[in-house]
């Protein structure tokens, strides 16, 4: 099996958190790691040291490149005028053959989240990690079709079954379709719009993978950061017990 490919989307300004540096460089109080360092540690722990990691940078890109130099970088020069679909498109166009796991650069999560995706890697099936215990208005939510595959994925979804946590997998078989549909998105669309278009027009089948028993927090604001810090503290205490 070829090396596992992982993309971290870290180009945005993260203005809601109100930090002078890129949001992935926010320090977690539990052990002093940054968000992106926690992500990289999780990737190595769950997927192995040989995982090929690409980080898409934009805002103050030099700070991220200096902080985590042992990865490959892609640059979204239009980071201030575009949304996550353009960063993901840039990354996927620069991957090699095979499936790709990608995550938002502000997600603090249990490494077991990635373990849950490994069977889908092995079977070359597309998937998204979801929390079925929450459906917050500002989060990306989902519904499924009669076969249990995702049929809607956006912040506007009604009667949602849960919310996406920002960790996803596109199969090798679906990657070209997703690249094509991301290219059709508007600049301000989230990458989830590309997934919806690939589902609608290309028959892409995306399985929601329930990780509700694990922690995964997207850090958009100060309250999210506190929740992420507490979740990480609880995880560390449990590991030490």
Account of the 3D structure:
Strands 1, 2, 3, 4, 6, 7, 8, 9 and 10 form a 9-stranded mixed sheet that branches. 35% of the residues lie in helices and 23% in strands. It starts with a strand and ends with a helix. The model has no long low-confidence stretch (mean pLDDT 95). The chain is an alpha/beta fold and 241 residues long. The protein is globular. The protein has helices at 35-47, 61-67, 84-92, 112-123, 172-184, 191-202, 222-240, and strands spanning 5-10, 52-57, 72-75, 100-104, 107-109, 126-131, 141-144, 150-154, 162-170, 206-210, 216-218.
Strand composition percent:
15-25%
Distance between the termini: 36 Å
Number of strands: 11
Structural class: alpha/beta
Rg from alpha-carbon coordinates: 17 Å
Helix content: 25-40%
Our count of helices gives 7
Large-scale geometry: globular
What is the H-and-E element order?
Answer: EHEHEHEEHEEEEHHEEH
Oligomeric state as shown: single chain
The residue ranges in which pLDDT falls below 50 over 5 or more consecutive positions are: none
Q: Mean of the pLDDT scores?
A: 95
Major sheet: 9 strands, mixed
Characteristics of this structure?
35% helix, 241 residues, nine-stranded mixed β-sheet, two-stranded antiparallel ribbon, 7 helices, alpha/beta
């Amino acid at each position: 099996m070829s090396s596992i490919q992982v993309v971290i989307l870290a180009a945005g300004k993260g203005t809601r958190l109100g930090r002078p540096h890129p949001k992935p460089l926010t320090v977690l109080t539990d052990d002093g790691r940054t968000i992106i360092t926690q992500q990289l540690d999780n990737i190595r722990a769950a997927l192995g040291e040989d995982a090929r990691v690409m980080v898409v940078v934009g805002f103050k890109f030099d700070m991220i490149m200096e902080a985590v130099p042992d990865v490959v970088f892609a640059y979204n020069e239009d980071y201030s005028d575009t949304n996550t679909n353009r960063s993901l498109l840039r990354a996927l166009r620069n991957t090699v053959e095979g499936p790709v796991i990608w995550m938002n650069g502000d997600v603090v999560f249990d490494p077991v989240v990635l373990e849950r995706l490994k069977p889908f890697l092995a079977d070359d099936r597309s998937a998204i990690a979801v929390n079925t215990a929450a459906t917050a208005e500002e989060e990306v939510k989902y519904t499924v079709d009669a076969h249990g595959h995702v049929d809607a994925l956006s912040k506007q979804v009604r009667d949602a079954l849960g919310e996406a946590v920002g960790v996803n997998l596109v199969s090798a078989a679906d990657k070209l379709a997703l690249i094509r549909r991301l290219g059709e998105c508007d600049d301000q669309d989230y990458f989830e719009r590309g997934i919806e278009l690939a589902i609608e027009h290309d028959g892409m089948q995306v399985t929601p993978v329930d990780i509700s028993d694990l922690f995964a927090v997207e850090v958009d604001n100060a309250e999210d950061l506190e929740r992420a810090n507490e979740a990480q503290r609880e995880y560390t205490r449990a590991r030490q017990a």
